[in-house]
Each structure stands twice: as C-alpha cells, then as structure tokens.
DNA sequence: TAGTGGTCTAGACCACGGT
DNA sequence: CCGTGGTCTAGACCACTAA
C-alpha cells in the first residue's frame, strides 16, 4: 500500500503540491541543492522531477541557468483563460447531455459551500470550491485529457485570486452565475448553459487580467 | 548559432520528433541503454528527456519498469478528439473576429495543397496539410497555450490516419467542409463557422474511432 | 578568477521477470 | 537466483556571474 515508490515521483508530487498551494510562488527559483536538502535525495531525482513539471508547464527551465516556477504574465493569463473559456463553454453544453442528478446534487452542494465561504470572507475555501465547481462540470464528461488541461490552467485563477481575493461585486456575481448555470443544467437547456458558461468565463477572465495589472502596479510601487 | 546546447534537450527533441514522425510507434519501449547508444550520451540526459516527454503526455513511464510511447487506446482517442472539438469550435468563432485576409490566403493555399495531395493519394502530405489547416486557424488567435494543446493531441489524428489513409468518401468530405469553413470565415459568419467546425470535428472524430477499432481487429487477426 | 550552480559520467544498487 | 534494465549517489566538469 505504499504510495509513490521512487524518489523522483515523491519529489515531483511534493513540488507540484507546493506550487499549487502557493508555497512556491511564480518566479521562485528551484535550486537543486536546496531540494536535495529538503527531500533528502540526490541531484538526479530532483532534476527528473523538475523536467517532468516543465513538461507539464508549471516550471520553466533555462539551460545552464536553472529552473523556476512559471511566471504568470499577462500573455499567459490571457491564453490560459481563453483555453478555459473554450473548455467551459463546450463542457457546459456537454453536461446538459450527460449530467446525472447525482452530479447536479454535488454541484449544488459545492455551490452552497462556496456561497458560505464567500459570506464569511474565507477566501481560500471560496477559491477551491469555485475551482471544484468548474472541475466537476468537466469531470462529469469522464474526459481525462480535458480534466488535465483544466487542471493545468486552474493555477492561474488560484494564484491571482489568492493574492487579491474576491471583491464585494464579484462575491455576488459568481454565485448568481453559478446558480443560473445549475438551473440551465436542470432544465436541460444546452444553449442557455453554453451562453451562461461563456459569459461567466469572459467576466472571470477580464477581472483576472484587471486584477493582475493592478497587482503589478502595486508591486512596482 | 548553436541550436539546443544541452544533451537532454537534444535527446528530448530527437525523441519527440521520432514519435511525431512515427519512427517510434505507440507502445514502443524506450530503453535507456538503447538511447544512450543512439545519441551517444549517458543515462542521465536520456532519463531527463523521457521525464519531460512524460510531462507532455507523449510518453508513459512505469516506475521500475521503464518508459514507452503512449498507447492510443479508444479512451484516449475519444478524449483527445473531444478536446480538439472544444478548441476547433471555439477558435473557428474566434477566427471570424480576428482572422486577417493574409491568413485567409494561407488557409486557401494550405487547402489547395491538401486537395492536390488527396487527389494524388499522397497520404503523408495530406495528413500534414490537414493538421496544418486546423493549426493555422488556432494560431491566428496568437494563443500559445491553445496551440500547445492542439499540438499535443494532433498526434492522434496523425498516427491513426497514417495507418489507415483516407477513404474515397473522406477524401471528398474533408475538402468540402474546409471550403465551407473558409467561406464562412470570408463572410465573417461566426455562427456558421462554429457549426461547420463542430460538424467537421465530430465526423472526423467518429471516423477515427471507427478506423481505430477496425485497425485493432485487423491487428488481432 | 573564484564561486555558484547546472550538467554529465561512472558505477553501485535494486526491482522485476524468467529460468 | 541470475540477467536485464531502471534508479540513485558521488563526484568531475563546465557555463555563467560577479568582483
């Protein structure tokens, strides 16, 4: 019953978790020596873990210069959000075709948690429940590749939102749009679901860019 | 003016190319010793290259058992085609908004090459021009992440099509649907472009699955 | 030109599969 | 229980940077 057996798997999983959790922030250097000490392994497993994460796109490696956590620049945020947009729109439509009542209940329950977290200003929980909501819609299709792609880009939302939080404005629109989406799912209205998902993704994307730009100017100050 | 400098980059690029070209087929083992000999490097660069490709999803590594080129099973084909579907649909709509006349000309020229290749039964060229057509539509949006995602899954089309070729039937519908798409782009008809792209992706996906199943039963025989 | 840190090799170690 | 082949360590080597 041992989980991952090899060292490079352990290091890879630990690193990925640290990046997702935010312990390692975008731009942070990943020095081999440091990780050798942290995980009590040699250089080889560390390098292999880093290479794999580079393949996944979380980490950037410059030859002879080293690795660092991928920077979230404006370009990447826009691109990631657009892919999210394409996925969310399509899988909202798909959900109408295949979503079960059981998953609908799950969505409703996630949504309840999200609203409660928002009302209590529990930003971390709100972020995770929000991502979970969208992930669950995609996962309902049982498409591994779509889920992986979603996961790859959800780090953008997670990281920026964690830095800025939810505005009073957004704390209202997010639940409203989610409830509209659930309603459209319930009455099996594919067109409506697509349009709501589309609108939701656009407004989320635009706000994230705006927050990012604000963040940059604040950091510069 | 040296291209990639480090060994692991060279090996990674060579391996990736071999997989895309089909020199290394799905399921082929990637033995470290073999690659050490082939590329004249030690085990370390080989392992790092493999790990990165595993991150990209082209290669599967089982701990203590080794790496092999990813198998194209029915599940993966379906999932990949569905992601392609989501991308193609969305970026067809997007192209109407942002596509330039210059890119339209490029598309027309690619399409000409594709039709010529089909009429001459030049399958390899047809495959590449076909992929190029769809890639170009996505690339017009200038979205790096979308392009990478497209690239990741285009290997499915490439590999299966290479094994089976184009049926007389498909040799007619592909150009027809592409021409319809170009026409919709030209009159900036987003709704039509989306629906054509959608239809095109669905029929391509269904045919690939069918071909795959046929291929499996032939191989088994 | 010294220091930091990434890259690569050689070889020991060990898991797994066949005999 | 031997062979094949994947995994890991130790250390040499080398690219970059700063003084």
Distance between the termini of chain A: 52 Å
Low-confidence stretches of chain A: none
Shape descriptor of chain A = globular
The strands making up the biggest β-sheet of chain A line up spatially as: 1-3-2
Chain pair sharing the greatest interface = A-B, 39 and 39 residues
Radius of gyration of chain A: 19 Å
Mean pLDDT of chain A: 94
Largest sheet report of chain A: 3 strands, antiparallel
Total helix count of chain A?
Answer: 9
- The oligomerization state is homodimer
Instruction: Tell me the series of helices and strands of chain A, N- to C-terminal.
Output: HEHHEEHHHHHH
* Total count of strands of chain A: 3
| Relative strand content of chain A | under 5%
Question: What's the short version?
Answer:
Chain A is mainly alpha-helical.
Looking at this protein, list some descriptive labels.
homodimer; 221 residues; mainly alpha; three-stranded antiparallel β-sheet; 9 helices; 5% strand; DNA-binding
Structure write-up:
Chain A is mainly α and 221 residues long. Helix content of chain A is 76%, strand content 5%. Chain A has helices at 7-21, 32-39, 43-56, 74-98, 101-119, 123-139, 144-164, 168-186, 190-220; strands at 29-30, 59-62, 66-69. The longest helix of chain A is centred in the C-terminal third of the chain and has 31 residues, at 190-220. The first copy, chain A, is globular. In chain A, 38% of the residues are buried. The model of chain A has no long low-confidence stretch (mean pLDDT 94). Chains A and B meet through helix 3, helix 4 and helix 7 of A and helix 3, helix 4 and helix 7 of B.
